[in-house]
Amino acid sequence: MIKKVLIGILCSAAVLTLGILIGHFGITKSSGSAPSWVRDVAKDVDESLVEKFLSEVDNIQIQENLRELTKVPHMATTAGDEQTVKFMLKRWQDPESGLDQAWREEYMVYLSFPDPKNPNSVTVGESLILQTKKILRWFSPYAAYSPAGHPKGKLVYANQGKPSDYELLNRTIDLNGTIAITRYGGAGRAAKAINAAPYGIIGVLVYTDPLDINDGLMSDINETYPHSWYLPPSGVERGSFKNHYGDMLTPYLAAKEETYRIPAKNVTGIPPIPIQPIGFEDAYILICELGGEAAPSEWQGSFSCTYNFGGPGFKHTSTFNNSDVKLDIFNYEEVRSSANVMGVIRGSVEPDRYVIYGNHRDSWVHGAIDPSSGTSVMLELSRVLGKMVKQGKWRPRRSIIFGSWGAEEFGLIGSAEYTEQYFTKLSERTVAYINVDIAVFANATLRASGMPSVQNVIFTAAKQVDAPGLDSMSVYDNWIQYANKTSPAHGTIPRVGYLSGAGSDYAAFVHYLGITSMDISYTYDRSKTNARIYPAYHTAYDTFDYASKFIDPGFTSHQATGRTAGNILIRLADSLVLPLNCSDYAESLEEYLKTAIDLYQHQLKARNISMGKNKTFNNAPDFYPEMNQNALYSRKTHDKSDNSLPLKVRMINDQLMLLDRAFLNPLAFPDKYGYRHVIWASSSAGQPTFPGLADAYDKAESSGQSNDWDKVHYHLSVLSQAIDGAAHMLLDVI
Amino acid sequence: MIKKVLIGILCSAAVLTLGILIGHFGITKSSGSAPSWVRDVAKDVDESLVEKFLSEVDNIQIQENLRELTKVPHMATTAGDEQTVKFMLKRWQDPESGLDQAWREEYMVYLSFPDPKNPNSVTVGESLILQTKKILRWFSPYAAYSPAGHPKGKLVYANQGKPSDYELLNRTIDLNGTIAITRYGGAGRAAKAINAAPYGIIGVLVYTDPLDINDGLMSDINETYPHSWYLPPSGVERGSFKNHYGDMLTPYLAAKEETYRIPAKNVTGIPPIPIQPIGFEDAYILICELGGEAAPSEWQGSFSCTYNFGGPGFKHTSTFNNSDVKLDIFNYEEVRSSANVMGVIRGSVEPDRYVIYGNHRDSWVHGAIDPSSGTSVMLELSRVLGKMVKQGKWRPRRSIIFGSWGAEEFGLIGSAEYTEQYFTKLSERTVAYINVDIAVFANATLRASGMPSVQNVIFTAAKQVDAPGLDSMSVYDNWIQYANKTSPAHGTIPRVGYLSGAGSDYAAFVHYLGITSMDISYTYDRSKTNARIYPAYHTAYDTFDYASKFIDPGFTSHQATGRTAGNILIRLADSLVLPLNCSDYAESLEEYLKTAIDLYQHQLKARNISMGKNKTFNNAPDFYPEMNQNALYSRKTHDKSDNSLPLKVRMINDQLMLLDRAFLNPLAFPDKYGYRHVIWASSSAGQPTFPGLADAYDKAESSGQSNDWDKVHYHLSVLSQAIDGAAHMLLDVI
């Protein structure tokens, strides 16, 4: 059903490539006595300006931005957050190096906080031996959206809190009334509690095992920060414990003051039972005292003891003996005003086309790496670009919008509300979204994810930037050593990931709006560490000191990320023809298709569902004979002497800009909030192929029910229609 | 919540009006030695070409088109339909007067037919005294999508089959096991059976009362056709008995061969019990013999007897005595291949902008008026325009797409599948859709419905066309005498209706795609007739003879409709700045708002739901200070000597084109298939105001439940966000 369609995309991509040549060569650069706008509309990227930009992006400026941004903790909607709002506005409204305009936009969003008067605590037996670390009033670690409650029961160890973990545990122990301790990883934060509740578990603890974050190291005497980048025993990873992104009380509506809010009791995708994060110093005490059988080897972490399931509860020999564990959780939910800070540079030729560059501003504590590394880079880009604009040396062809999103840590709320509020305007006008959240995880190599069509502009940009700390090697050449793949069209190239999840603010742009997006950072040498993420992630140790000593001394990786992302930004804003390559998209779709055929075709054939034929599209050339003629025509007009219309370039650009929009289907995933992109939606099947198809197939195969097989057929049709629709966007316009 | 927003729209409409002035005057008409495209992109409508077009639209050509189209019955997917497909293709592929390209596109759609071997029948007692008229094998009257079945029971009269009708009847009679006879009007076709079933009614008859269609006349000796336009006693109105438009087995997916189809048993919105249409000669026999109490006066029709409820069943004194009525219905459903015929004229400057002009091709029998009057006009327009193109005298700025839709009579299927298949392409590129289905209901005056933004171009066009049969009076001046209203901005003007229903193929364009649309025809002098519609509607009497003798002798009203619609088409295709007036849209929204405030504000205030304030938008000027500056800037560039960019005009046109798209919300009406436009969706509340709000309010007021009041608040928020979004599309682009 979808095979021919993909080939169709490839073909039309070829047509477009020719179209791109028209764009580049067809418009004469000087037009004699023509009006000045004739020259303006034909202007392409100015490479000397790119060079100037690259040379002006300054590592020390980034360092000082970070120092300023991390002065105080700035959790969403707190006084520290307000301080960063004012700082962003001041910088973006600076008369020498600010943007054309900058302003704040408020949303009233549903957040969750610990009670400053009653810190959450964990008790064993009668004595309060574990109390979650209080770094500062208001910032004691907690699980946002965990309900308040005071569950008390025998402790069990449930590995990562995956469904299979609880299932296995339940075979050995009666879990009713127990408290489960789990480690981070393997399952989403909220899922650890959601998966637990059906077994009668009444509370959950979650900690970071040194195996997963510290390459096994755990001594704060000489191993962990401040001796290295590793997490100290007292570090606690906070986080948002919810499954859906955006404000949960105002689904699909911008959370303005008077917006209708669903009753809080109707919110889904949050923990039904109390859950609390703790540091591994506390987890160690609890886990190593557990009784019962030894857990399987995959459940073992780095502690110097065997991880047992729990009796439930502790060993007889333990000092805890048969004590219960009690959680006292005082979290409460509140609707609060959270601000996005927005800034724009107005486009000169096509002000109604937007390139959006964004990052969140809120942190859990000081948030030096997450998110202030990204914000420091964004401020440096906007300073360099803003200065060129203020000095009259440059104005981009298209408009640039900078977004400093609020309340991302609570589930990408600021960016999601923004896309809900400006849905049509952003859909119709946005060329691309660039996300730089954690700018530097580590200083080994560039990392990029995005729609396949942005691969090429990322490569172009990365080739022009020097790799930090390496003599005469580009970011691109360095990158290809760390992560590469073989492309049928390009040979060996760096591997660009996909944005199928909702890990940062790109989510609403990718999944809800269907805007071509990318996420850029500097990251690890994976041969040197197995850390799940940089060790201080979401803890109070993510500070300026930590960042400047152990993540990126000298801030040169920040600089490289900024140069690369800024170069991409300029190219997207200034290129005459948008640097989006749809044939790279087709290559990825072909890979997905091949996987789908390998995995599913046999079974589907047996059920009379065909994957290999799409009559409509196959017949299209007969219906539209001129399509092929036009491909030829395009080839002919490659001739430089032929004058072409600026509207022809706009037409091609609109085809490129809107390609991803054709993949949207607002009804395809009724159970996944905000997921409309049928190629990149999240998937639980874990297969590198079309997500709706993969998940439906998994379900049908396990249930065997005929209506589940109907769903597989339905998702094939959704996919076929979406890809067909995308191909129609790329074919000759009429 | 929405008041200020509307004022905002008005303001931004003013900004746009200034923008329009830039477009008209800013681009110099000659540019010296500039490339030729500099002149081409600045070209506006050529009024001499409009005149030439008007003079060439020929009434006799239309008459001959109609004669050809109505030679044989052409119900969807029959041999007669195929004949019309070939005829359209021949005309649109004509080398002298055809289009650039024309082709057919097939969909496999779910239809319903009578069994040619077993004609449906209605029996009283033991003798077959009523047999539905068999006009021709395959075209015996039937209710499409009525299930087959053989219900037998006592007859009752249920007026129009509205919920209130059955409710009233049920107070007097036990309806279990009865057959209800109903008259057309008051409720949808399928609704008459859907409303009946819950009362235990097992079959339904439906007929056209002479009161509703014939101004009371019913004698075929001297009163009805062929003596006049009135329906003869044997005439039977056929129709599609379904609530949702489009193919019912493939919701939101184009019905291609391999598309997933839902099981037919899951189809909703069709009659759960057999229903059959009959002529009033048969209805007369049945109704005048009914026993029981006299029905209320509003239930009485034109028959020369009292309409009784039924005993149930007939009077004791009737020859039918206590006989049952039996329906023998042999209808069956089938998936069949139905064709759209498509034709295009490629645009010269903006080929990627479409003006779509369409009508369905299929009829119930010969379908002279419905739909062939419209098709005859469309063919004449395409002949005149095609000839100009073939002769090299003209090529529109934008592309023109002609659509001859299939299977409209079965629920707008061809046009709906087309919009599903090409969703993104059509959404992103279509400037407007013009529907001319029944071109001439009667020859008194023009009738037009559409989004308020098209009012002005309809007026412009109608002022340039002579009213048929009237000396030196324009279609516009004639129209204003029949239907007018007072506009705050324009004074007395003809009344243009809204497209809030799904009466013809505009439905998918308006409600699913959110494309600015209009529906044009010539119609009645309402002071001369109360006929629900032209009397031969959907009967075998709708023939060429009928049309040419009683609807439009001389075909001058067809000509006037064609000239007006064609003039609109040219203006939409050729105008430099699109002739869509968003301030007229704002005027209609203000009226809707005023009604909403009058009707609902008091109650909503009492429930703490505010309608009068929208903080976001109210504050917008502070956020975007440049907006107002730009209004000033626009005013300044009114100056003719200032050169402007062609991309600036494109930008304004995109704002106008996409305005309606901002009103779409795919989740607002989960129970209404294909309805996404929050301003024009269908509504059962019967109030001239926002449909979702009105329906939710009605429900909440009658149930009093708090979750129903929540729905009212929700719809206010949906509306507020949509209008806000539309305003953002009109404001300065960045």
UniProtKB/TrEMBL annotation, chains A, B:
Cited CDD domains: M28_PSMA_like (cd08022), PA_GCPII_like (cd02121)
Keywords carried by this UniProt record: Aminopeptidase, Calcium, Cell membrane, Disulfide bond, Glycoprotein, Hydrolase, Membrane, Metal-binding, Metalloprotease, Protease, Signal-anchor, Transmembrane, Transmembrane helix, Zinc
Principal subcellular localisation of the protein: membrane
Domain called Transferrin receptor-like dimerisation: residue spans: 636-730
Family statement drawn from the similarity comment of this UniProt entry: Belongs to the peptidase M28 family. M28B subfamily.
InterPro entries membership: PA_dom_sf, PA_domain, Peptidase_M28, Peptidase_M28B, TFR-like_dimer_dom, TFR-like_dimer_dom_sf
Name this polypeptide is given: Aminopeptidase NAALADL1
GO MF term list: aminopeptidase activity; carboxypeptidase activity; metal ion binding; metallopeptidase activity
Functional description taken from the UniProt entry: Aminopeptidase with broad substrate specificity. Has lower activity with substrates that have Asp or Glu in the P2' position, or Pro in the P3' position. Lacks activity with substrates that have both Pro in the P3' position and Asp or Glu in the P2' position. Lacks carboxypeptidase activity. Lacks dipeptidyl-peptidase IV type activity.
Keyword Glycosyltransferase: no
BP term (GO), one: proteolysis
The PA domain, residue ranges: 152-240
Peptidase M28 domain location: 340-548
Subcellular location: Apical cell membrane
GO cellular component, as recorded: apical plasma membrane
Gene3D superfamilies, alphabetized: 3.50.30.30, Transferrin receptor-like, dimerisation domain (1.20.930.40), Zn peptidases (3.40.630.10)
Cofactor(s) named in the record: Zn(2+)
Assembly mode: Homodimer.
Membrane topology term: Single-pass type II membrane protein
